[in-house]
Give the backbone structure.
Amino acid sequence: QVQLVESGGGLVQAGGSLRLSCEASGVAFRRTNMGWYRQAPGTQRELAAQLTRGGSTIYADSVKGRFTISMDNAKNTIYLQMNTLKPEDTAVYYCNAQRTSYPHSAYWGQGTQVTVSS
């Protein structure tokens, strides 16, 4: 079965950097888009960055130029490099695997907290 295990969250000052990791198992990457979502208290979960099965990247406007999503195929691990962090980036970050073919299943990690202090 699919398992997504995130790591790398923590507390950082504004302007600092963090790298999140998502170790994925049981994922058919050729039929799956991988992404990072985030959810701040009192808000809906939103897409931060996505790496499509074709290798394209999609970023939320709020993180463009600061966040980079990438994958190490040998380690089955997806990364989110976050630079120039802002207090508004504070959220729980979730790794997501979305099947692009039927039944279009979505899988989630347990989440990792990122807190940016001002």
